[in-house]
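chain below, 225 aa
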Amino acid sequence: MRRLILLGSIASSFFLAPGGASAQVGRDHAERAQDRHELRQDQRSLADDRRDLARMEERLTRFDQASAQRDRATLANLDREVSHALRKEAKESRRELARARAEVMRDRHEVRSERREVAQDVAAGHPGAAHGDRHDLRDDRRDLRDDRRDAAGERAQLERIVAVSQEWDGLRGRMYPRALARKRALLVELTGFARHEVVQDHREIREDRHELREDRREAAEDRRR
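prediction:
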């Protein structure tokens, strides 16, 4: 999921706190705070992407009407509007890719940390704690797999948006039937992108809520140890 590396200085201070138990409690607190931040962020993204989808659907409707009426002025306005929207979308997609890559790095750190905890529990003769940490390790590995998938998807989408932007700019000002047909196909594809973003946001929110529940469960287990 798209999780930011936040509260770094706070988390670091907890990790360095004396005593393993207090450090673990501090990390649990930082992770729950991050989970809540990510949930709020993804809820805002959902609202933004719903507006983007509505705008793209409206552009497609205007394009169809203008094409049918041979309204060259409206088609020229849409040329400029879509070109601007594509540049904005490419910029946002680059930010999303950077966040996805940062989350993969964070997941790798968590997997290494959980591996150390399992090894420490086994060495200390704490089978119960080792069992719980192995469960956490499986969760972290799953998160790493999911976030690698998300990063790959973000990279592929960015590459496609850049390609569409370049093609659209090459078609600007062209009003003959074949060019209009190609522009419409690109608008349909962009509307599909926008719709996919809304679906993705819903998935991210579900994952955020699951992650928050998992971190609360882990914190309760750590307090009982």
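Residues 1-19 have pLDDT under 50 and may be disordered. The chain has one domain: 8-224.
thats it, cya
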